[in-house]
């Protein structure tokens, strides 16, 4: 089998060389690349002779996959699979497996960190003092005692709920599947509209699919408190970005934090979420920690070994 890792995955050349020795000893060929190239021509060139390919969140379209005539297995170093043409893979007997669980802690910690920043204005106050300012009359708000609505209690939503309970927040939830371990934390499940009405903070943790696309739009935003905060570390299109931007500008919600958008950063300078200082933005980094990348490599190549 020819195994190709089309990008660096954030791991060292030394680890790749160890993986190469591992697969050569098993009688396979292993090729890796230390850079990330997202154009279709380069991807097709790298993958065209592969039986097995490893890739993260680079878009894999039908146009690329059609050129990979030997491909049998895709080990995806990412949780979501919406960037891959799964229909083509299914029709051509290409097995696709994600790396669920590698970034659970990383994403949940960033979600809570964003909540803390929105409540305490850490980034804004850092800039203020660097410009010669002082506290003035600024007052922050505490996370303890706030009602936080978790939308989606998969692994990441559950981990986020656990952190919030430790902070002393009241956690409520909506999810397509109710989990006993979440209820055991004292979390109450309820209809989404009720969650939106009651929450001081709404944190999104659902996958992107037909049912969740645009889940947070005009209707959902109209139910939220004017003092409420919205945090999205899930997928950009789960929110109607135009509706969120409008709600922020019109002060119909107090603030938002987004790590994900309708497209991968860089964003255009006139992007709606950049037009207001009520929105904290980060460039899709929730999953990206040293610890999560090390765990991801273990999962991804463990899956390759299992498939082989």
- Into how many domains do the coordinates divide? 2
* N-to-C order of helices and strands: EHEHEHEHEHHEHEHEHEHEHEEH
* Unreliable stretches covering 5 or more consecutive residues: none
* Helical residues, percent: 25-40%
- CATH uppermost class of the largest domain: Alpha Beta
Radius of gyration: 21 Å
Based on DSSP secondary structure assignment, what is the total number of beta strands? 12
Q: CATH topology of the largest domain, anyone?
A: Rossmann fold
Note the gap between the termini.
Answer: 9 Å
Protein model, in words:
This protein is 37% helix and 15% strand. Strand 9, helix 10 and strand 10 form a beta-alpha-beta unit. It folds into two domains: 119 residues, Rossmann fold; 178 residues, NAD(P)-binding Rossmann-like Domain (Rossmann fold, 3-Layer(aba) Sandwich). Helix 5 crosses helix 7. The termini are close together. The strands form two sheets. Strands 8-7-6-9-10-11-12 form a seven-stranded parallel β-sheet, sandwiched between helices. The chain contains twelve helices and twelve strands. The longest helix is centred in the C-terminal third of the chain and has 18 residues. It has 308 residues and is of the alpha/beta class. The radius of gyration is 21 Å and the shape is elongated.
